[in-house]
């Protein structure tokens, strides 16, 4: 059932830097990992999730990155091949998901046991691969930091992205919200059923949002940074919360012009500072949430915190309240195409890469933002969406959007 | 039962500016208010609370202040003398407490009905007069913004002040906390029973707090601003919250040197700005909470929000879980002495001023931070503290600390 080669090498993706300083992603081989040591788990990877941080990392725009060459990737699913001593919560053959700080994009990986989780039997490897980053982030934003309450008004961006879709599903757990979001206009039809007000991100939405919520918005979730920080703060109600959880607007369209990007980022960095006293005078708040930073801490408390939330998310999955949405699946060799989907903002839900595209094992469903047992789902999804099971099928959507 | 004069004038305190530009508080008379209009309530004031914002206002250090001369004061208690049309929740003769944006320090006041609340029958006028600002602030900080949870670690300042005492009482509602606070060392004995770690504010407490909470603190409540903003942020755990709810450190010891104060404030204002990206990278948050700003909004939603919390606080009072602590009582004529107690940080709990010191009606109890039915209270309070009733007594502590 696993894709382990009989040779001593395994396939992986590395981020390398050429002699001219250009960063690039490349499929290569690396020696098969040795046996897992104390507290470690060896996993045969089935599917990996792509995140916007992978795009930022591709261009060197993340803090505290390893020096190239290294294996990127923050989340993957697979089967446990072997366990080290003092590993009791998973065993050989278990289907698991992994959250890791880099190193996920390989055919086999060795990881510390703490962020390896057995997945529910109903969950496909692809669903599992795209779950951790998006749903941990969305859950923490809404329920740990945002403390969202019935009747409140929320604004968030990139409603069609991985975190956006997870937010949309989780928001249905809270009654009587007013939900406002931005997204690319070509995604509006797919998103409209579950979001009350949709705006294009590139327009200045402040006036429109003020009409909808004259007293202001209770919670703004911003994955863009830049101009949206100032806009978000301007729209907050008293005791309102602005949470920055990403910086994707720093990646401009001339994404390959590294100099241009760095310059833009640096300007924003220096200028967009907030006065504590202004927050005090206005009774507003600014939060930052950075999952990668939490992963890098590696303290017991951090790992317990994240593990606790993964289990809460699994319960919601088993109750049918959430369902990860896979937009498209690519092979490792197509990784640049996979990243291109995120750069072009063409995805609804998450993009997957697999070391060996498993055409016989899983089917990619049409994107939808709702869970399949939701009464509204028909309005955003195709006729095959009631098919809740991941069946054997050749229907793999090998998206050929190429921008890399 | 009320203190209404038979003449057409009433006593009040005004903040006025002399020809030389000096601001001063002065007791004077003003015409008796006319009958309350639609939605208004006329109140015979029994007792007024003093807040640090009154000190800041005295020196012109608050935003959006009225131009002198005006009547200061944010909270008072009294008896309803008359009601306008469309006032149904209070009636003539009711014992009430009032939250107002200025104008509380007068023998009679007319206020809008929304922030007038009938007080529990067990609550004395003095307890009522010092309740709104301190307990609304403390409740919102802990439960609305801070979202404090069992097992967390909290740091706050001015533990002996009005809000500090309210925080200490409310924190007992949450199990298993680690409570760290700063206060003047002469108050340590009175505070020690309910605060696990006490530090002097003027020392650099960062190293000590890091020893107590190596992973950092979940919640920092800062009424000082200035250096404590940076310290508070440095001490936060991931997803930790720093809340600025006051700026008392901006009032330096040379408080009468208005030029010096303004200069110091302006410097801090310009320099202590926070990068959104730094918050994002560190997964931390900064909140501001400013009760005065909420009062100035005057929207229906704001008033409903505050009224809802006042009722929650009253329930806690009736359950014996909180009890406002009156440090000392002064007459209107002694208002500068009353403010001096706060400037010198000599109070534990709140300071009261009364238009006519009601020596026969109430007794000031020895300061304590715990509720009287608390098992630990004996360690911070005197032998008469089991006396939960406000009895008729001449035992009024007319503190003569004079610094104004």
What this model shows, in words?
The structure is a homodimer of 404-residue chains. The first copy, chain A, is an alpha/beta fold and 404 residues long. The first copy, chain A, has two domains: 9-131 and 325-354, Quinone Oxidoreductase, Chain A, domain 1; 133-289, NAD(P)-binding Rossmann-like Domain (Rossmann fold, 3-Layer(aba) Sandwich), CATH 3.40.50. Helix content of chain A is 28%, strand content 24%. Chain A has helices at residues 52-58, 125-129, 132-145, 162-171, 188-191, 206-212, 227-235, 258-271, 276-282, 291-297, 300-318, 335-343, and strands at residues 9-17, 23-31, 40-49, 75-83, 95-99, 108-112, 116-118, 153-156, 178-183, 197-200, 217-222, 236-244, 273-275, 284-288, 326-331, 350-354. In chain A, the strands form three sheets. In chain A, strands 3, 4, 5, 6, 7, 15 and 16 form a seven-stranded mixed beta sheet that branches. In chain A, β11, α7 (227-235) and β12 (236-244) form a beta-alpha-beta unit. Chain A is globular and about 65 Å long.
Q: How would you summarize the topology of this molecule?
A:
Two copies of one chain form a homodimer.
Chain A: E1 9-17, E2 23-31, E3 40-49, H1 52-58, E4 75-83, E5 95-99, E6 108-112, E7 116-118, H2 125-129, H3 132-145, E8 153-156, H4 162-171, E9 178-183, H5 188-191, E10 197-200, H6 206-212, E11 217-222, H7 227-235, E12 236-244, H8 258-271, E13 273-275, H9 276-282, E14 284-288, H10 291-297, H11 300-318, E15 326-331, H12 335-343, E16 350-354
Parallel strand pairs in A: 8-9, 8-11, 9-10, 11-12, 12-14, 15-16
Antiparallel strand pairs in A: 1-2, 3-4, 3-6, 3-16, 4-5, 5-7
Helix pairs in contact in A: 3-4, 3-11
